[in-house]
Amino acid sequence: QVQLVESGGGLVQPGGSLRLSCVASGFTLDYYDIGWFRRAPGKEREGVSCISSSDGSAYYPDSVKGRFTISRDNAKNTVYLQMNSLKPEDTAVYYCAAEWANNHFCSLYGLLPNEYDYWGQGTQVTVSS
Hints:
Structural class: mainly beta
């Protein structure tokens, strides 16, 4: 059974950091491009990063560029999202998603949620003082 499980969310003060993990089971992440998304209350799902399986290239929207870093450890079948300098507007449920690797997927479609086939259940991140 294909499954993605996120963890690492929680409550953090503005300016703080969190590292989210996304562990895959039932399939090997090596062959998938992986995205992180978030959904804040009352807002649409937003892509915050994508990492390519082919060369590890990473992509971010301007809203998180320079603060968030995506990485992957294929040996552990895990993808991480390091989030630094967190702001209250980063508060959301964060999801990881997987899509069979395709050339230029991350650069062209990686931040678009409808392009992914597999999703985790999400982990809550709350940034508040």
